[in-house]
Design goal:
The complex is a heterotrimer.
Chain A lengths: L2 H30 L7 H17 L21 H21 L5 H21 L1 H4 L20 H27 L2 H11 L1 H6 L4 H27 L11 H12 L4 H18 L9 H22 L22
Helix pairs in contact in A: 1-6, 1-9, 1-10, 1-11, 2-3, 2-9, 3-9, 10-11, 10-12
Chain B lengths: L1 H31 L6 H17 L4 H29 L4 H23 L14 E3 L2 E3 L1 H23 L1 H11 L1 H6 L4 H27 L6 H16 L4 H21 L5 H15 L17
Antiparallel strand pairs in B: 1-2
Chain C lengths: L2 H25 L3 H4 L3 E8 L8 H18 L7 E8 L4 H14 L3 E6 L5 H10 L4 E3 L14 E2 L5 H14 L4 E7 L2 H16 L3 E8 L7 H9 L4 E5 L2 H14 L4 E4 L6 H11 L1 H7 E6 L6 H11 L15 H20 L4 H4 L14 E3 L2 H9 L4 E5 L2 E2 L12 E7 L2 E8 L1 H8 L2
Parallel strand pairs in C: 1-2, 1-3, 3-4, 4-5, 6-7, 6-8, 8-9, 9-10, 11-12
Antiparallel strand pairs in C: 10-14, 12-13, 14-15
Helix pairs in contact in C: 3-12, 3-13, 4-5, 6-7, 6-16, 8-9, 9-10, 10-11, 13-15
Classes of the chains: A mainly alpha, B mainly alpha, C alpha/beta.
Chain lengths: 325, 295, 431
């Protein structure tokens, strides 16, 4: 493969890993437990900003043209861990406010509002994360490995991302298909029965909210270390919708399905639409991407609402034969 | 004091814009339980219909009326061709939200591809603002406020005094019981969509008019604030939508006058969240015993 | 079909679709290189979203250059092709787009790109790929750029802000207000404009930053109007500016506006003109822009080629005063001349010749068009290309800059009202 093709492949692979991890986070929240988290993208953003700030060092360095709070020069993988903690912490705060007593459709609308508030505040308060210009010059941790070509370093980063994705996947399998996973699904299917059994639905929702937030933060960290920059224009509120489409197309609640959905929707459409015979006017192409995403969602919701790889429905021997829908 | 009064005046203008749309949004939701996030697209579409008419020489207020009727028709079609089938197919409340978002995404980008990335203005100069009692409002502002008042009154009267209104309220409280009583559900639902579409059209043209310039994304950008106003007031209550619109509008402008104008929306949203913490159903909660989507 | 088989089938189908899409990118060569003997300059700008006008703006610079260069015989026998590519206006989407461009085009020799929204993410990519990128971002982060393949021919935002303050003083205004949008592009010149106003001891009646795209700025406009500024130093995107000034006009009046090249962009003029009336706008607006003698041969050559490019550039005349289009035109010509001078179309080779064709030196022939430059180089001479933007002299950080002039829109044309001297701009910057 030529160098250019390699870099393109590397880009696609990193984006797939990050998107899959994020989609799993949303799958835990929405697919399995039924929380309509329309602010999902801000958790990815907080992870990206945290990882960036923790690897950039103090803001007076770098020529002083970017302002941001905090700033440390932590070695790999601390910025990534910091990003996960930030995602979890933000999720805890938002969850404690929004998840408690609101009815589900209000919850959804409040989340949407929170997403808009986040971009507005970050853009207006330039001291937080350099406003609309965003962070830049975030270094890829693998570029510090001595004696290797830039290409090899990049491939090592890809390998790292894939390993992380597989680890998260294993954790997802363990959670989703465990007894605990059944509790979560019960929140989605029949909240009252769950409460009657003495478990708190709100407790479970908050729990997946926080875990999902951590996963979103992790995905943001991987992205920012690869892209090197992060700005509000990249995490406006409609971006959450792309992840929802991935979860729906892939199969709510299904770990493998959501992974395929995330790869197809997040990355596949964007790249594939360049080769459609609709001419090369970039304005039309950009609109086409969104239109295809929307149409795909509708088609899947109509034809195959359970998604490409539906979640496995367990049947239990000795049961009374009652099967959930 | 002057600054405060004029800020309240500006807030009334924003509130009027919000009220026209929020009442339509919330009315349709109360009858059908569908959270129609494609509402902003209907506003934009109607706004551009009015633009086309205005460009060919029609007076903007007349164009507004025609555009509003188009908005109504588009909304009914949207429900008949898209939402209704999905609901009958078994889509739940959550699923319908995703359906409406997808519809919004598709229609917004179709409009964008059609009109391009440019900016447009109506041929309707607003003139100078009139000074009275520390208020600074143009004739156009006052007309928009008047439209909001009329829309609100007509909606309230329809809901309280007419049989159609009573049927709508019955349907929103308990759909199955309403059906059992012989209320023609399909027809009422269509009326609700038509009414909400008309208000979306009026709201869209008013928004474009008051912004002085508009593009393909203006309607959807404003939708978040409309939803905030509707939720604040208690989704499903027309009175609530108006009160929510007033609060959001005035908080926004007074906040811009006394605090950081970049964060004026944030202030309004913070008020929304605070109110919901204390009163999770909004200001005028709707008593519904069932929450099934009605198509 | 058994459950397991169906899942395998669906999964394989999905995987196959994804693989095909991805590989389509690697194996499909761009149409330009398919015909062997063409070189490609990519127009890598935003064609979608809020700043969707940036792409067509850059195209309005590239296509006239393409026309003139090919008419003069091309570059070392190769025909030039301008290829539009959407950068999508944010770093996260621009990176895959840039990598895809680099991977899929084997005849790519240069890039016109790097707008403020995505420059910091994509410049390192083109640097790594060793492809020269001529960027129109004014951000301060590039004022001391160490990227050898990065070139910036327009003055940075910091200088632009100072020039606007200097212009206010030169025009005789002592009470001014500043008004900037909070997006990345406008925020570049805000700090130096404000500090310039203070350093020149003008009275700053108000300094406002606007959240962009709001439907109402009435409170902000009233506050600004209450301070009664004689002039407003301003940069904001078309929609924000139009809404704001319309409301300002309703509540009080629109004073003199001191703007920058953004106000000469056709979308800005249409939006604001439509909102407050074109005659009022033209009467009140002074644009402080890079100074280049408007009747220069280079500029006239550009505008003629622009008018002739209506097939690739819809309504070409709207761009002829747009500084960014003009800068992109010069950038393309400079790239072409550098290739001629280095006798190579390899980007890593000709990149070192960019300064050689633009720096003044004794014995260098000053040329204003590609044709003249190519001819002089063929005779073995050294050249200095002085283009439509003026002389482009790069410093050690590959930054160039121009002087500034105050222009006004008179009878359908931008004309220079007065030129700002370096001393006047330095007084504002404190240099």
């Amino acid at each position: 493969m030529s160098a250019a093709t390699q870099y393109y492949t590397i880009t696609i692979l990193v984006y797939i890993c990050a998107n899959v991890i994020a989609a799993w986070g949303l799958d835990l929240q929405f697919g399995v437990t039924g929380v309509l988290n329309f602010a999902f993208i801000i958790f990815q953003a907080v992870g990206a900003y945290t990882a960036g700030v923790l690897s950039l060092g103090s803001s007076s360095g770098n020529g002083g043209f970017e302002q941001y709070i905090g700033g440390a020069n932590l070695p790999f993988p601390l910025p990534i861990i910091g990003a996960m903690l930030a995602g979890a912490a933000l999720a805890a705060i938002v969850g404690l406010i929004a998840l408690r007593r609101l009815r589900s459709d209000y919850q959804a609308m409040v989340m949407l509002v929170v997403s808009v508030v986040a971009t507005t505040v970050v853009t207006a308060e330039t001291g937080l994360a350099n406003g609309a210009a965003g962070l830049s010059l975030v270094a890829n941790p693998m570029y510090g490995l001595a004696g290797l070509s830039r290409q090899t370093q990049s491939w090592i980063f890809v390998a790292f991302c894939i390993v992380v994705m597989l680890v998260v996947g294993a954790v997802m399998y363990a959670v989703v298909y465990s007894p605990h996973g059944r509790v979560l699904r019960a929140v989605r299917e029949n909240e009252h029965a769950l409460e009657a059994l003495g478990r708190s639905a709100t407790h479970s929702r908050l729990e997946v909210f926080v875990i999902g937030g951590a996963l979103a933060g992790l995905s943001g960290a991987l992205l920012v270390e690869f892209i090197g920059a992060w700005a509000p224009s990249g995490w406006l509120y409609p971006e959450t919708f792309v992840f929802f489409t991935a979860v729906i197309v892939g199969g709510r609640g299904s770990v493998a399905g959501v992974a395929i959905g995330a790869a197809l929707i997040g990355v596949g459409i964007q790249q594939a639409v360049q080769y459609l015979p609709i001419g090369s006017d970039p304005t039309v192409l950009a609109a086409a991407e969104w239109i295809i995403t929307g149409v795909l969602t509708l088609v899947f919701l109509w034809v195959r609402p359970q998604g490409l790889l539906p979640e496995r429905r367990r049947r239990f021997a000795g049961g009374s034969g009652v099967v959930t829908r | 004091m002057e600054v405060f009064v004029s800020a309240v005046g500006f807030g009334l203008v924003t509130a009027a814009l919000l009220a026209i749309s929020a009442v339509g949004f919330t009315l349709q939701f109360s009858v059908t339980n569908v959270l129609n996030l494609a509402f902003g697209s209907v506003m934009t579409g109607a706004g551009f219909v009015a633009y086309g008419l205005n460009l060919s020489g029609m007076n903007i207020w007349l164009a507004m009326i025609i555009a509003a009727l188009c908005g109504g028709v588009i909304s009914v079609l949207m429900n008949t061709l898209l939402y209704g089938p999905f609901i009958r197919h078994g889509m739940t409340l959550f699923g319908m939200v995703i359906v409406t978002i997808s519809t919004a995404v598709i229609s917004d980008h179709v409009i964008e591809a059609a009109v391009g990335p440019s900016f447009f203005s109506y041929n309707a100069p607003a003139g100078k603002a009139l000074h009275f009692a520390d208020f600074l409002l143009t004739r156009q502002d006052l007309t928009v406020i008047a439209i909001a008042v009329v829309v609100t009154l007509v909606t309230q009267l329809t809901l309280q005094r007419t049989r159609l209104g009573k049927s709508m309220r019955g349907l929103s409280v308990n759909p199955s019981l309403a059906r059992a009583c012989g209320i023609p559900t399909r027809r009422i639902v269509n009326f609700a969509w038509f009414g909400s579409g008309v208000m979306a059209g009026l709201g869209g043209v008013a928004l474009f008019l008051e912004s002085s310039t508009f593009s393909a994304t203006t309607g959807s950008d404003f939708l978040i604030v409309i939803i905030a106003a509707a939720v604040l007031g208690g989704i499903g209550s027309a009175r609530g939508a108006v009160l929510g619109a007033l609060i959001v509008g005035i908080v926004t402008e007074v906040g811009a006058a006394y605090w950081d104008p970049q964060l004026k929306d944030v202030l309004a949203f913070a008020v929304l969240i605070l109110v919901l913490l204390v009163r999770p159903q909004g200001l005028f909660p709707q008593l519904a015993t069932e929450r099934a989507v009605v198509g | 079909m058994k459950q397991r088989d169906r899942r395998i089938a669906v999964g394989s189908l999905a995987a196959a679709a994804l693989t095909t899409a991805a590989w389509g990118g690697f194996t499909q060569a761009s149409s330009a290189s398919a015909s062997g003997g063409t070189v490609e300059i990519a127009i890598f700008h935003t064609y979608s979203g809020a700043n969707a006008a940036y792409g067509p703006e850059a195209a309005a610079g590239c296509f006239p250059a393409e026309r003139l260069i090919n008419a003069a015989g091309g570059i070392l026998g190769h025909q030039l092709v301008c290829t539009p590519v959407d950068s999508k206006g944010d770093p996260a989407d621009a990176v895959p787009a840039a990598n895809r461009l680099i991977a899929s085009s084997s005849s790519l020799v240069g890039v016109l790109g790097g707008g403020s929204d995505e420059a910091s993410a994509v410049v390192p990519l083109f640097q790594q790929a060793r492809i020269p990128i001529f960027s129109t971002t004014g951000q301060a982060s590039f004022d001391h750029s160490t990227a050898s393949y990065f070139w910036r021919i327009l003055s940075p935002d910091a200088a632009q802000g100072n020039a606007m303050a200097a212009a206010a003083k030169k025009l005789g205004y002592s009470k001014v207000a500043t008004l900037f949008g909070n997006d990345a592009a406008a925020q570049g010149s805000a700090p130096s404009a404000i500090s310039g106003v203070r350093r020149l001891h003008l009275t700053l009646t108000a300094s406002q930053t606007l959240a962009i795209g709001q439907p109402s700025y009435r409170s902000e406009a009233e506050q600004l109007g209450a301070g009664n500024p004689q002039a407003i130093i301003t940069e904001a995107d078309p929609k924000t500016s139009a809404t704001y000034f319309a409301e300002l006009s309703q509540l009080s009046h629109v004073p003199v506006l001191i703007t920058d090249p953004v106000s000469q962009e056709p979308t800005w003029r249409t939006a604001v003109g439509g909102a407050i009336g074109t005659s009022l706008l033209n009467k009140q607006d002074y644009a402080v822009v890079a100074y280049s003698p408007p009747t220069s041969l280079a500029y006239r050559t550009y505008t003629a080629a622009l008018k002739a490019s209506s097939k690739q550039v819809p309504q070409p005349a709207q761009w002829d005063a747009d500084l960014y289009s003009v800068a992109d035109y010069d950038s393309a010509v400079i790239m072409a001349l550098a290739m001629d001078a280095s006798h190579s179309i390899k980007p890593s080779v000709y990149n070192g010749f960019v300064t050689k064709v633009t720096s003044p030196s004794a014995g260098a022939v000053v040329v204003h068009t590609y044709a003249a430059g190519e001819a002089a180089l063929a005779k073995g001479k050294h050249i200095q290309y002085v283009g439509a933007v003026g002389a482009t002299v790069f410093n050690q950080w590959h930054n160039s800059g121009q002087g500034f002039a105050i222009e006004e829109y008179v009878k359908g044309n931008w004309t220079v009202k007065s030129v700002l001297t370096a001393a006047e701009v330095n007084a504002a910057s404190g240099a």
